[in-house]
Design a protein that fits this description.
The chain is α/β, with parallel strands linked by helices and about 160 residues long. Helices cover about 35% and strands about 20% of the residues. Strands 1-2-3-4-5-6 form a 6-stranded parallel sheet. Helix 3 links the parallel strand 3 and strand 4. The longest helix is centred in the C-terminal third of the chain and has 17 residues. The two termini are about 30 Å apart.
Length: about 160
């Protein structure tokens, strides 16, 4: 059996002017946070003859410091984005507030799941992914339906290596 190369995902904020760069390495972009960015990615995908799986970033918590669509902006955005060639809308992503108690962010994760379920009733797309949860709250995110969690700090941060002992 041959080894399969890792599939790299773009998770952080992606500026529109950097959209072409990400296509060189990203198997999926989790952080599509505007129609403008989706349109640029679509143009570059068409030029390269490729289809790019994407997730729409949603600012469920309403924090001013977070990127993403506000929940009420989603339906018109999804209508436009699902019509763009070269992109395959596969779900939603959110960044919950950092909190000492993981239970306190459960409403954010439940809110993203509810949004996904509502969108799935109106718009044709796979809607298979919910990218939510990080090192400190991924268990709660999984309980609320996460299919992708981001636990980099648990794996790579020096102060987190005590779980290896």
């Amino acid at each position: 059996m041959g080894e399969e190369a890792p599939a790299w995902h773009m998770v952080g904020h992606l500026q529109s002017r950097k959209a072409a760069d990400v296509l060189a390495w990203a198997a999926m972009v989790h952080s599509v946070d505007s129609v403008k960015l989706a349109q640029r990615l679509s143009r570059f995908c068409i030029a390269q003859g490729r289809e790019l799986p994407i997730l729409l970033e949603v600012n469920v918590s309403g924090e001013a410091s977070k990127y993403g669509f506000l929940p009420d902006e989603l339906p018109p955005a999804v209508e436009l984005i699902t019509a763009l060639p070269g992109l395959s809308l596969q779900g939603l992503m959110t960044m919950a507030p950092i909190a000492p108690d993981p239970e306190s962010v459960r409403p954010v994760f439940a809110g993203l799941r509810t949004l996904r379920d509502e969108l799935a009733r109106s718009f044709p797309a796979p809607w298979q992914h919910l990218s939510m949860g990080m090192t400190d709250d991924f268990e709660v995110a999984i309980e609320e339906g996460a299919t992708i969690v981001r636990i980099g700090r648990a794996i790579f941060a020096a102060e987190s290596h005590d779980f290896l002992a």
